[in-house]
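It is worth pausing here to work through a concrete case rather than discussing structure prediction in the abstract. The textbook approach is simple: state the sequence, then state the predicted structure, then interpret. We follow exactly that order.
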Amino acid sequence: MNTDRQTFSGLLWVQWLLIIALLSAVVVGNYIYSEFSLFYRVLVALGVLLVTGGIFYTTEQGKNLYRLALQARLELSRVVWPTRPEIVQTFIAVMVVVGIVMLILWIMDSFFSWLAFVLLG
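Step two, the predicted structure:
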């Protein structure tokens, strides 16, 4: 077990504080400048988010997240996707099972409604 604690360097603290400040500025700025056109607010927000993403990428966590996304994309290309007939067959099977369960629940509901009517008058 590794008991060593990683210490944040000064630059890392500055990066994370800047990320938090920029994201907070987007939220607060969107509220404060609500009288401006939505188009301009979205444009500014996208620009700030792009800068924030760039700063996040320079951190170790950002690089790890980027590597994870690349690996997920590679893994997605390895997936064997079902053919259209398989999709249709599965859909029909699911609908049949849902119909059967629906019928069973309807019968049970009717029985308990009848039982309550008989017992309670």
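Step three, interpretation. The longest helix spans residues 84-120. DSSP finds four helices and no strands in the chain.
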